[in-house]
Automatic annotation (TrEMBL):
This is Homoaconitase, mitochondrial. It is found in: Mitochondrion. Keywords: Amino-acid biosynthesis, Iron, Iron-sulfur, Lyase, Lysine biosynthesis, Metal-binding, Mitochondrion, Transit peptide. Binds 1 [4Fe-4S] cluster per subunit. Residues 585-604, 737-784 are annotated as: Disordered. Residues 759-768 have a biased composition (Polar residues). It comes from Friedmanniomyces endolithicus. Pathway: Amino-acid biosynthesis; L-lysine biosynthesis via AAA pathway; L-alpha-aminoadipate from 2-oxoglutarate: step 3/5. Residues 102-532 form the Aconitase/3-isopropylmalate dehydratase large subunit alpha/beta/alpha domain. Residues 585-602, 737-749 have a biased composition (Low complexity). Its cofactor is [4Fe-4S] cluster. Belongs to the aconitase/IPM isomerase family.
Length: 843
């Protein structure tokens, strides 16, 4: 069996790829003899290729491995699934027999773990308000204090005390202020476990994907639901595959990879997608786990809902290291369970005996690639993650800086601190007597450091790196979010320029809106603090023949280098044959019959959705057209009313200001029962739930858009507002109702072909409420809110919509996503809180 497996694996390798992938074939590629799992990055100049260790177990473990462990065959799925879909499958409840989940499905989700941080008390108050008194599964919940740890005010300390007491009373694992940033704790303590799903009430839960754990954010109502019932709902997003090729060069880091991706693909290509990162094993070895964590963390800024790496040799080696470390250094915590309860070799044996992988033939919504060997150090900004510039271009501009930051869950682990410390160690001088003078930061520059967690700081102290940074003049801050989210010491003042190894540089995020913020790797941040301007340490050398960064759509693998097994080839032939047969059948059936059967017209194989008793099978109303993209939550429900509890608790009052910041006349034009239709990215911006409840207060039961901001989509269902995405309808409305000459229509009133519909650019939505993209409207609209006379019907049972374009006008239909019974139940009960109450009462 072993011989057969070896033979099959060789079939996947072309002669040109046995030693190095195509992108680095001209370069000498030396295998690394040793690898430290928390080693400094590129601190030696002796290796031309950078790889992580391939050993996935210690010799004693390998020696005792039973033969059946090596020969175990993975079961074959009847429906090919992505890695994301496979993980969701494991954590979905109430699935019909034989159901394989896919992108677009709504599922009842019971995540492996749910983390809340400083917002634990608001979640607790919501938890208690819905009638819950006992956490459903204390082992499922993790609470950390990390956001405002520098705030010693009586009010904040009281909140922290309330959270700790609540956690203690419920038997929940709790990590106090100063212990570390919640996301780092989730990873280093083994809560974010490969092949599982973990959620958090914070947008950077994407980071768990760096260790092959599907991490995604939830809102506070979801967290309260999980506390009370162990469950919430989730719609599986479209899934994008990002394929890496080549080998990451010396002097380039994971931070450079994600900064480059945000800048190279900056037109919302992955907005609201789940991302899966893939690549040849040689390529993936050049990305250690710490780099993967940084990449996955900032998929949030890229616009994605998750960023998932595979379970491969690099991760296996890291996991073995962590399990051994946990067994050697057991430090009991008075408020949390032992690390070794989660990180242990027995659990790893179970995981690695049958690790999850994406199936061959799995369907992805899109595919992008990036050749890592063509990358150089990159810098993001100023004040935007969508502006990414090669470091050498900015170095030529000699941009002075006032502050530098090595903080946050993105890049302040021991390897990051070591890389920054090495910059100063290399810059130290030695006189004729052998006396060493440490290098120090430039006069006038302030350099702030905060470890991702206390264990990471202690590891850096043991290596001498923490002390080296302090000796260089850095100012230490407690382990926590701090300046990254604009809290505590060291914020940017008006007119200042800062460079940070954190994840977000939106205008005003780290201090004054009149300051400029850049993002870069720890090495570049340290070198910039040393030079007093944006600069690098000089560890990167551009390869000979370099012509630019190679990236684009597809997998980036040249056909002559494509590795394919016999099984893959047969699978490809079968799929091509099936497609040819289908095409022939359609041709025989005739063009008219084929057209009526197209998915766009809703004529494909029809499946019927079960409808709960009392839930409407159809929702019908006149289309009320608001022609704008990026209608944010402040436009829907003005912020000045959001924290006026008396106003926001009165539906009659809320109805008077619905959409006020979009159109002051909206209240007079809109009528009860209308169907509100708007453009793309509707509901971007802040996480206020009133944006959904205000529309319901206006007695509008359904919102239709080209696309929704993710946070609005969640809040809508959580508050019983129905919503559906129909991009074609936006195109038809714009072609018909745009002012002549303002949006592509002619002076004769005849509509010209509409431009392609795309997601809006410069979108900055997230759970942390950065400034949304500017609202986009026609150049000369005749009215902001238009009664169209068109009728929109959502046939929930048949998962299709029917549009009648006015009296005697065109009628057309289109398939839409299913609204399954589990989501119907939430809406029917008045939202997620009502559903939770029902579950509690039914126990």
């Amino acid at each position: 069996m072993a011989t057969l497996r070896a033979g099959r694996s060789l079939q996947r390798l072309s002669p040109s790829t046995l030693s190095c992938p195509r992108a680095i074939r001209a370069r000498r590629c030396l295998p690394a003899a040793t690898h430290l799992h928390h080693r400094p990055r590129h601190l030696s100049y002796t290796l031309s290729c950078r790889r992580a260790e391939t050993i996935d177990a210690f010799p004693s473990l390998l020696a005792n491995t039973p033969p059946e462990f090596l020969s175990r065959a993975a079961p074959t799925a009847t429906t090919p699934q992505t890695l994301t879909e496979k993980i969701v499958q494991r954590y979905s409840q109430g699935l019909p027999q034989g159901k394989f989940v896919k992108s677009g499905d709504y599922v009842t989700l019971s995540p492996h773990h749910c983390m809340t941080h400083d917002n634990s008390w608001p979640v607790a108050t919501k938890f208690m308000a819905i009638g819950a008194s006992k956490v459903h599964d204390p082992k499922q919940i993790v609470m950390t204090l990390d956001h405002d740890v520098q705030n010693k005010s009586e009010k904040n300390l009281k909140k922290y005390s309330q959270i700790e007491e609540f956690a203690k009373s419920q038997g929940v694992d709790f990590y106090p202020a100063g212990r570390g940033i919640g996301h780092q704790i989730m990873v280093e303590e083994g809560y974010a476990w490969p092949g599982t799903m973990a959620v958090a009430s914070d947008s950077h839960s994407n980071m768990y994907g760096g260790v092959a754990c599907l991490g995604t954010p939830v809102v506070r109502t979801d967290a309260a639901s999980i506390w009370a019932t162990g469950r919430t709902w989730w719609q599986i997003p479209p899934i994008a595959r990002v394929n890496f090729t080549g080998i990451l060069p010396q002097g380039v880091t994971g931070k450079d990879v994600i900064v480059a991706l945000c800048g190279l693909f900056n037109n919302d290509e992955v907005l609201n997608h789940a991302i899966e990162f893939t690549g040849h094993s040689n390529t993936m070895r050049s990305l250690p786990v710490d780099d993967r964590l940084a990449i996955a963390n900032m998929t949030t800024e890229w616009g994605a809902l998750s960023g998932l790496f595979p379970i491969d040799d690099v991760l296996k080696g890291w996991l073995r290291y962590k399990a051994t470390e946990a067994s050697m250094y057991k430090a009991p915590s008075p408020t949390a369970s032992l690390t070794s309860d989660r990180f242990n070799h027995q659990r790893l044996d179970e995981l690695l005996s049958d690790p999850l992988t994406a199936d061959k033939g799995a369907t992805y919504a899109k595919e992008l690639f990036l050749d890592l060997s063509t990358l150089s150090p990159y810098v993001s900004g100023p004040n935007s993650v969508k502006v990414a510039t090669p470091l050498n271009e900015l170095e030529g501009q000699a941009i002075p800086i006032n502050k530098a930051y090595l903080v946050s869950c993105t890049n302040s682990r021991r390897s990051d601190l070591a890389a920054a410390a090495k910059v100063f160690k290399n810059a130290a001088t030695t006189d004729a007597t052998g006396k060493i003078t440490p290098a120090r930061i430039k006069n006038g520059v302030q350099f702030y450091i905060a470890a991702a967690s206390l264990p990471e700081q202690r590891a850096a102290e043991e290596q001498g790196d923490w002390q080296a940074l302090l000796a260089a003049g850095a100012q230490s801050l407690p382990s926590g979010c701090g300046p990254c989210i604009g809290l505590g010491t060291g914020l940017l003042e008006p007119g200042e320029v800062g460079i940070s190894a954190s994840n977000r540089n939106f205008k005003g995020r780290m201090g004054s809106t009149e300051a400029k913020a850049y993002l870069a790797s720890p090495e570049v941040v340290a070198a910039s603090a040393l030079a007093g301007r944006i600069a690098g340490p000089g560890w990167y050398e551009r390869p000979e023949g370099w012509v630019g960064v190679m990236s684009g759509e597809g997998d980036g693998i040249a056909e002559e280098d494509r590795m394919i097994s016999i099984e893959d080839a047969l699978d490809k032939l079968v799929r091509e044959a099936e497609a040819a047969v289908m095409e022939g059948e359609q041709a025989v059936a005739g063009s008219s019959e084929s057209a009526s059967a197209s998915p766009e017209n809703g004529g494909d194989v029809e499946t019927m959705t079960d409808i709960l008793p009392g839930f409407p099978e159809k929702v019908t109303g006149e289309i009320l057209w608001c022609d704008a993209d990026n209608v944010n939550t402040d436009a829907i429900y003005p912020g000045k009313y959001t924290y006026d509890d008396a106003f926001s608790s009165d539906p009659a009052k809320m109805a008077t200001v619905t959409m006020e910041n979009y159109d002051r006349d909206f209240g007079q034009v809109a009528q009860a029962g209308d169907i509100l239709v708007s453009g793309f990215n509707f509901g971007c911006g802040s996480s206020r739930e009133q944006a959904a409840t205000a529309i319901l207060a206006k007695k509008i039961p359904l919102v239709v858009a080209g696309s929704f901001g993710n946070i609005f989509g969640r809040n809508s269902i959580n508050n019983a507002l129905m919503g559906v995405e129909v991009p074609k309808l936006i195109q038809r409305l714009r072609a018909t109702f745009s002012t002549p000459g303002s949006d592509g229509s002619s002076s004769t009133g005849k509509a010209n072909p509409a431009p392609p519909i795309t997601e809006p650019t410069q979108n900055k939505q997230s759970l942390d409420s950065p400034p949304p993209a500017p609202m986009s409207q026609p150049a000369t609209p005749s009215a902001l809110t238009v009664r169209t006379g068109w009728t929109f019907t959502w046939d929930v049972r048949r998962s299709r919509v029917v549009v009648v374009e006015g009296e005697g006008g065109r009628e057309w239909t289109q398939r839409v996503g299913e609204l399954p019974p589990n989501v119907q139940e939430i809406i029917a009960r008045g939202g997620l809180e009502g559903w939770v109450r029902g579950e509690i009462e039914g126990r």
